[in-house]
Write a structure and sequence with these properties.
The chain is of the alpha/beta class. It has two domains: about 1-140 and about 305-335, Medium-chain alcohol dehydrogenases, catalytic domain (Quinone Oxidoreductase, Chain A, domain 1, Alpha-Beta Complex), CATH 3.90.180; about 145-280, NAD(P)-binding Rossmann-like Domain (Rossmann fold, 3-Layer(aba) Sandwich). Helices cover about 30% and strands about 25% of the residues. The chain has ten helices and 15 strands. Strand 9, helix 5 (about 195-200) and strand 10 form a beta-alpha-beta unit.
Amino acid sequence: MKQVETGNPEQGLDGIKVNEVAPPPEPKANEIMVELHASSLNYHDYGVASGTMKAPEGRVLMSDGAGVVKAVGSDVTTFNEGDHVVSVFFPDWQTGGPTIGDFSRTPGDGIDGYAREFVTVPASWFTRAPANWSHSQAATITTAGMTAWRALVVEGNLKPGDTVLLLGTGGVSIYGLQIAKAMGARVAITSSSDDKLEKAKALGADFTVNYKKDENWGKTVSEWTGGRGVDHVVEVGGPATLGQSIKATRVGGSIVLIGVLTGIGGEVPTALLMRKQIRLTGIIVGSHQHQEEFVSALENMNFTPEIDKSFALEELADAFRYEESGEHFGKIVVEY
């Protein structure tokens, strides 16, 4: 079977290798064999593939994987042969509060991932995929979809009529837009591209702002709410954007930090954060239980994920180069 691996970290994306290897073993008692058909690209995957995050040479890439169960172990009761399934980001975090603070057991980073045609793993490493979703659509759930769901619903307790601010038009933010609109919220979204903002409006965004043209976009978003401020912010930027996000948030609102695209450290206006009594929460994706709940919710929401472009598995390096360009709107997927 084909699988795509990291090469020499010094070579970056040029070092990615496509190899032919033996298929995986038949499943043990608690395992399933999955024929994988799709994965989706995330910033975390890019960090591993580009060598920024130092995974060992030969690591099978990709945290997200969707496909069909081909065989089940004797003790497996959750799946049957032929079921459509999707992987979870933290295989060891099944339920309850967070227990993991690193990526040592995340597929595609600390352990081998899903850029391969077959995999045999414990059944608990997958959940069912939403009914009637394609494999490519289901593959977007594991990281981007789950992060948006946990930020808005699990941590933010999103309700109809709430106001939400999303930063940028990458996979998490566009998923957040679709979830929030499906749940009856009002959404503001930022971008440096007017064309992308028009696409966001077409998906239901109620208010848009170009942060390159409006450096004080936090105040602008607050004014959109009549000066009250938004209820929820899904914060992907980190130090360079957090100050504006705090300005945009209402007293007693919620900011969920899910990314640090502008760096891993910087100044935070702590006095304003304290005065507004904002709840600032950092998260990394979610648990197996969170994903099961998300899949159930998706089957009752009237949307499918926004997929920008698809590549073949052996074109994974080119897919990452496209992600690197920043031209995409929503998700990039690989199909195999």
